[in-house]
């Protein structure tokens, strides 16, 4: 068995190792009060910053041709199921297209809806060669629609100076391209004016 002096020396040494930041006087004062709280100083771990995975830039996407449709895939029949999905999407969006549904309600929904898969027809245009083009919208950009026609031709039709008609379950809606110069993601947050001057 250790003597009292040895025990004191052991306790003092143990406390000195356990609390290296405290001075001897402070340790002795704690012993005199017979209240000892052992402190622990864990080593701070440096957190490694996670590198954010960056996606492709627009230039890289163009170079890789990620969204290009191969010529053998440019067939109208391939995209008819997409059109059927779009019609179901619009029906759900408008809570069912019933005969007593208010047309302005459908119009307001279509203005903000995703049009990929919709069948549109160019009804008016300042360029006569665009009039009559009908097809399924494959991609919508800020200034143009990419449309696949029944003749299996991929057409790029500008929105500016063109009026498009869109029909679903007997409801016909008109899109004035000059007022529609927005990306699909931007349209969902835009507030459209119901009244105003309309021009090609």
TrEMBL record:
The keyword Membrane is assigned to this record: no
Subunit structure comment from the entry: Component of nuclear RNase P and RNase MRP ribonucleoproteins. RNase P consists of a catalytic RNA moiety and 10 different protein chains; POP1, POP4, POP5, POP7, RPP14, RPP21, RPP25, RPP30, RPP38 and RPP40. Within the RNase P complex, POP1, POP7 and RPP25 form the 'finger' subcomplex, POP5, RPP14, RPP40 and homodimeric RPP30 form the 'palm' subcomplex, and RPP21, POP4 and RPP38 form the 'wrist' subcomplex. All subunits of the RNase P complex interact with the catalytic RNA. Several subunits of RNase P are also part of the RNase MRP complex.
Lineage: Eukaryota, Metazoa, Chordata, Craniata, Vertebrata
Record's function text: Component of ribonuclease P, a ribonucleoprotein complex that generates mature tRNA molecules by cleaving their 5'-ends.
Protein's name in the database: Ribonuclease P protein subunit p29
Gene Ontology CC terms, in alphabetical order: nucleolus; ribonuclease MRP complex; ribonuclease P complex
Family per record: Belongs to the eukaryotic/archaeal RNase P protein component 1 family.
Keyword Magnesium: no
